[in-house]
Amino acid sequence: MRHRIALIASARYPLREPFPGGLEAHTWQLATGLRERGHDVTVFGAPDSDRRLGVRAMARLPEISTDARSDVGMPPEWFLAEHHAYLQLMLDLGAGGHTVVHNNSLHYLPVAMAASVPAPVLTTLHTPPTPWLESAVRIPRAGTVFAAVSRHTADRWRPLGADPEVIPNGVDTDRWSPGPGGGSPVWSGRLVREKGVVEAVRAADRAGTGLRIAGPTPDAAYFRDEVAPLLTDRIRYVGHLDHRRLARLVGSASVAVVSPCWDEPYGLVVAEALACGTPVAGFARGALPEILDDECGVLAAPGDVDGLAAAIRAAARLDREAARRRAETVCSVEAMITGYERLYDAIAA
Predict the structure, then answer these.
(1) Span 4-58, pLDDT tens digits
(2) What does the pLDDT look like over 164-196, one tens digit per residue?
(3) Which of 75, 118, 242, 245 has the fewest CB atoms within 10 Å distance of its CB?
(4) Do domains 4-170+332-348 and 186-330 have the same CATH topology?
(5) What region holds the Glycosyl transferase family domain (predicted)?
């Protein structure tokens, strides 16, 4: 069945390379893959997104009045801007004639206001429970359906009233193609505390392998105070790379180091590494044990830097072809799109 889909993305971060994070990369891939299958997809998101997606920018926050600004309890302006954008969107979606509304954002209003839209609303849960989103999920309403990006994430939400179908994130195994390996390990992702780049640096240093680090630095103070002092001629920050350069970097590495200091809901960097034929060494947190098996990854106990150093050395000996096969069978965008198509058919019926 072909669907007319309203895909709700982030109102704050544009869908363009280099992507601000895994959610934006996933949304870009989802929209592209659905269109390639023949679906009519309208993406609602932030300004300055990739022109090829034809993103409809959400409403901007009007000028806040002097009286409102005098309220000592006024929340941050970015919070108000997101609230206004999603509020206006949900009020306008009723006239869109969509067969499915797919909420791929992290905001609570598309869930809380799902009953205002005539089409069924599917929300993909990309994170563990957060206060505002949990509040919206706890209010039962007809026409609201949930998916989750991993079994781990689904299990966190089920006690709160959601019963998500698990549809793992996927990567384009043509865009993320196998590389030769052999180079020093790579760590990629947002350079923020919960992603554990400092722990990865310490593990690579103890393993004696060196490390190349790639990704955006949204927390400038964290990068300046905790990451930059660790950089050497063997521990290098190579920048925030676009897809093509990042795929070459990951494919050139002997190992991809994934070191979350929180329960990672999925871990798109794991799937990207496997598609490049690069085995993974990581902490056994969140969904990582679901994505990896013994042929393509080695996991250490959460927070165990010495164990991660040993995992880096062991993962370098794994078969790169096995890593690629794992991506093709478990982490492909084709499997992800097929899963969403089945769910769209079910809820539209």
Answers:
(1) 999 999 999 999 988 888 899 999 999 999 999 999 999 999 999 999 999 999 9
(2) 999 999 999 999 999 999 999 999 999 999 999
(3) 75
(4) yes
(5) 188-321
